[in-house]
Amino acid sequence: ADLLLLSTSEPHGLCYIETSELDGETNLKVRQALPETSIMGDKLLQISEFEGQIHCELPNNKLNQFEGRLHYNGNILPLDNGKTLLRGCVLRNTRWCYGVVIFAGKDTKLMMNSGKTKCKRTSLDHFLNILIMGIVVFLIAMCLICTTLCGIREWTIERHFTIHLNLDGSVIPNHMEQSSEQTSILSFLMFFSYLILLNTVVPISLYVSVEIIRFVHSMWINFDTEMYYEKGDTAAHARTTTLNEELGQVQYIFSDKTGTLTQNTMVFRKCSINGHSYGDVYDANGKVIDVTEV
């Protein structure tokens, strides 16, 4: 739940929190309770008898904005984002704190910012889906063609021999030739017969084979010695088996400048602006070549 901070274990009602789950920042942030409420400290009796009214904005997804006011002891006290503890925050360097719930459940800012989880599918999955749909259409077309040819044969040739065949009288009386209605019934039933006979055209085991290949590929990534980091004793770990084949299609890697990925050792080499390359020229040994115009 999102809380209005009332009191903390630190002097002046200060509270230190980490909001890495909200905005990705690991540096500690300071929150401070109102002086009128921070004097309650950890006195549970006073906190349980706390009476006040909070008038604030409607639930929204703005993490750095909060507006409201607290009616307490006949005073109107302004509230802002610096006096709230949002859901997902972690308490740091503070033993305890007390607060009153402002928003709960789906109305919290964390839940308002969490959209629907998208099902990630690779380009191979899309290709397989289109391929299977094409095969199903081909199967239905083949069944329709075979059914049509069967109906033509039944009407032109086979219907004259029904009086000589011991067929089920409920469908075709064995004492007369087939009528057009009976031929249509036979053709309709033959469609499902051809559907059963030709259903092996659809490769049902294809998805199972692809999943097995992905699983083996993930294990291969986990045991790849070329992706082992000796200093941190860390090996590569495939957290999902559905996106392995997408690694070979990565064309651009965007990295921030905070040192999260570069460890603050990123050195400018070269850049391209409007099709023109700017930067130093290096030889095979990695040394800068002094290029001067003549």
UniProtKB/TrEMBL annotation:
GO molecular function: ATP binding; ATPase-coupled intramembrane lipid transporter activity
Keywords attached to this entry: ATP-binding, Membrane, Nucleotide-binding, Translocase, Transmembrane, Transmembrane helix
GO term, biological process aspect, one: phospholipid translocation
PROSITE patterns listed in its UniProt record: ATPASE_E1_E2
GO CC field: plasma membrane; trans-Golgi network
Top-level division of the source organism's lineage: Eukaryota
Keyword Transmembrane helix: yes
Family annotation (SUPFAM superfamilies): Calcium ATPase, transduction domain A, Calcium ATPase, transmembrane domain M, HAD-like
Membrane topology note: Multi-pass membrane protein
Classification via InterPro entries: ATPase_P-typ_cyto_dom_N (IPR023299), ATPase_P-typ_P_site (IPR018303), ATPase_P-typ_TM_dom_sf (IPR023298), ATPase_P-typ_transduc_dom_A_sf (IPR008250), HAD-like_sf (IPR036412), HAD_sf (IPR023214)
Gene3D superfamilies (alphabetical): Calcium-transporting ATPase, cytoplasmic domain N, Calcium-transporting ATPase, cytoplasmic transduction domain A, HAD superfamily/HAD-like
Transmembrane segments: 127-152, 185-208
The keyword Iron-sulfur appears for this protein: no
Subcellular location, record wording: Membrane
Name of the protein described by the UniProt record: P-type phospholipid transporter
Organism, scientific name: Wuchereria bancrofti
